[in-house]
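1st attempt posting a full record on here, be nice pls
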Amino acid sequence: MATLICGSLAYDTIMVFPDRFKHHILPEQIHMLSISFLVPEMRREFGGCAGNIAYTLQLLGDEPLIMATAGSDFGPYAGRLDALGIRRDGIRELPEQFTGQCFVTTDLDDNQINAFHPGAMGYSHYNRVNEIAAPIDLAIVSPDGKQGMQEHCAQLAAAGIPFIFDPGQGLPMFSGDELLAMIVQADYLSLNDYEAELVVRKTGLTLDALALQVKALIVTLGADGAHIYADGARHDIPAVPTAAVVDPTGCGDAFRAGLLYGLRRGWDWPTTGRLASLLGSIKIAERGAQNHTFSREMLASQFQAAFGYALP
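the predicted structure (as tokens):
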């Protein structure tokens, strides 16, 4: 049985400006801004929520199956997935589109200027859950094209496949009614603290009321850990200290992978949340969303040290 990962695939092009934007942007001239930055440092990373989640799930020894759309430039990403042993029979390639692209310029103060081209992601609704040949016992709907997210929630619910709804950075696309329609179809809802506040405002429901719509509501709190509302209780999940905070990109996706791994195995919420928290900590110590690595032995040792009991 596989875990279906519905979401985006993207290339992240990250450039570093070895100065500060504030030294070159004139606030009084912002209405006629035309500026260029020399960026001697540049790197290209593999990203997108579906790719990032699948990467960590594969490291855990699970069987992720990505359902996403990619473009004519997908070749290098396809080769990477093949090398990692991650299935891509659920990925639809659209030759007339580009794979999603994020261009990030960062200055010495860690300020960022971003541009995102969705490309093939905007056609994610071309994929349908009932066209996946492999047996699926769990899924996640993560940030993707708007229509695709809506239709995949409905299709998973109709098929009786339990799934996490995690709107992430796609949240601003939806009205309160649209969000609520997807939430009530889902079994689990995952948000960060900012997104949780936005969902509360859009739907008019409190966190406690939202938790009643699903089997569990997961709210991540960054360096403060996470809260998991389930079975009439709130489980407080501690953050795991890390030796180096290098890059938060993809930490949420590593966390999501931990949730999926624990859910598939029927673990309790405190243990599932703690694994997810540990994975986020491991990821933040590495640049990029798919460059962290670990062995089962390393993971078990770190889990024992952080929480005082053994990983199941």
